[in-house]
Design a protein that fits this description.
With 419 residues, the chain is α/β, with parallel strands linked by helices. Helices cover 57% and strands 10% of the residues. The strands form two sheets. A five-stranded mixed sheet has the order 2-3-4-6-5, sandwiched between helices. The chain has a three-stranded mixed sheet with strand order 1-7-8. Helix 4 crosses helix 5, helix 5 packs across helix 8 and helix 9 packs antiparallel against helix 10. The longest helix is centred in the C-terminal third of the chain and has 36 residues. The chain is globular, with a radius of gyration of 24 Å. The termini are far apart.
């Protein structure tokens, strides 16, 4: 978010004052982070020198994950991963855009971690407050990010429990679900990760057993079970996303119901009735083999595609005259649209849009193209082309929304007719 005087050009309150205020806020946040980190769990131990660590609060105010870490790239990267993961999990896990109280994530240096052999741990209370503790260290890369994502997924699932009326401290959080969510977040950002998963599934022969996956406690690393967990996530989401079976399945697991009983209740139509364990195993192995050989690029759903484009096409700025936040169109006709910070924002979003274009739902690909043309015209100073592309973007978004609604109605009618 940047300070602008919307509609009045560059005049207004001196920006130096705003920057000074921001520096004061940043100092306050760091101070708060230091105090909070001082309230470490009893298992944590002080460094040998007895000096209090310097910490920083990252991504404050997001209403999703707030990361407390030592200054450096690791804390920033963890915050970035958390933001991307939340977007990937909103639909599958039924998470809101933001929480009234964010999940606290503490990246703890190994010197302070203590004797706990786990890579992460989660604490929560009946009021819904959730804290995820992650042991720092490890080489940057996909392997470390996957460990972090599994930890964040556990925190998100515990927070989800409070959203559906459960006590987060008592709710069940299946290990396979956390591992699957980690892979889902990785493949959402990097479609090539899905190709790697498919290759590993094919090379490994038959998939891990369904019962073995659903009852896995996660205490020991098990690559075969981890791969199978992501397959179960894809399969059951595919079969139960529209009917609501997937959402009910996850909630029932968090209540503590038997995975087999919930599977039979919510997905009983997939097997002969009454289904036995070996029949469920056969259905799972057939679907696992199918998923391992599917060659389609994973598409975002129409609603998710629309929301991504809407987020990309708007920017939040601070109106220094009114002293309030303003939500503005990134292509809109307002004087500050050529400021350096907005140019940098559009450039970053253009790169992300281009990298994800093949995954956008076809209903909204025209809108993505017109948005990209509008940004390019702005960058090159072509006023007329910018206005035409901006108008086309609005029309393409309206057309995509119409197709989305029509598709939903037709699918609902087909489901009612099949009952």
């Amino acid at each position: 978010m940047r300070p602008v005087r919307v509609g009045q050009g560059a005049r207004g309150r001196p920006r130096g004052a705003w920057r000074a205020g921001f520096r004061g806020a940043a100092f306050w946040l760091c101070a708060v982070g230091t105090v909070v980190c001082a309230e470490a769990e009893p298992q944590a131990r002080a460094p040998s020198g007895g000096e209090a660590p310097t910490v920083r609060l990252v991504a404050s105010g997001s209403g999703r994950f707030e990361v407390i870490a030592e200054p450096g790239a690791d804390g920033v990267r963890l915050a970035e991963i958390g933001e991307a993961a939340w977007r990937a999990w909103r639909d599958p896990l039924g998470l809101p855009a933001r929480l009234p109280g964010a999940i606290t994530v503490r990246l703890v240096p190994e010197a302070l971690w203590g004797v706990d052999a786990r890579a992460h741990r989660t604490t929560s209370d009946a009021g819904g407050a959730v804290t995820v503790w992650i042991r720092a260290g490890g080489a940057p890369g996909v392997a470390r990010e996957r460990l972090w994502l599994a930890a964040l997924a556990e925190g998100a699932l515990r927070r989800r429990a409070s959203l559906v009326g459960l006590d987060p401290a008592r709710a069940s959080v299946p290990a396979w679900l956390c591992e699957a969510a980690a892979d889902a977040a990785l493949s959402a950002k990097r479609p090539a990760m899905l190709d790697a998963w498919q290759a590993a599934m094919r090379e490994g022969g038959s998939a891990a057993g369904l019962r073995e996956i659903l009852l896995w406690d996660g205490r020991e690393p098990a690559p075969r079970l981890e791969r199978g967990a992501f397959g179960v996530w894809i399969w059951l989401r595919e079969e139960g996303a529209r009917s609501g079976a997937w959402t009910r399945f996850v909630t029932a697991l968090q209540v503590g119901e038997s995975p087999g009983a919930v599977l039979a209740r919510e997905y009983g139509r997939l097997t002969p009735r009454p289904a036995e364990a070996r029949e469920w195993e056969l259905v799972w192995q057939v679907n696992a083999a199918r998923l391992a050989r599917a060659r389609a690029t994973p598409l975002l759903e129409p609603t998710e595609t629309r929301l991504r484009l809407e987020r990309a096409a708007r920017v939040v700025a601070w109106d220094v005259e009114r002293e309030e936040e303003r939500v503005l169109s990134a292509t809109g006709d307002w004087p500050e649209r050529r400021e350096a910070w907005l140019v940098a924002t559009r450039t970053a979003r253009s790169g992300q849009l281009a990298s994800e274009f093949v995954r956008l739902h076809p209903f909204y690909r025209n809108a993505a193209g017109s948005l990209g043309r509008a940004w390019l015209a702005l960058a090159e100073g072509r006023e007329g082309e910018w206005r035409r592309a901006s108008a086309e973007f609005a029309q393409d978004m309206a057309s995509g929304r119409e197709l989305e609604e029509m598709s939903r109605r037709l699918l609902d009618e087909a489901e009612r007719a099949a009952r």
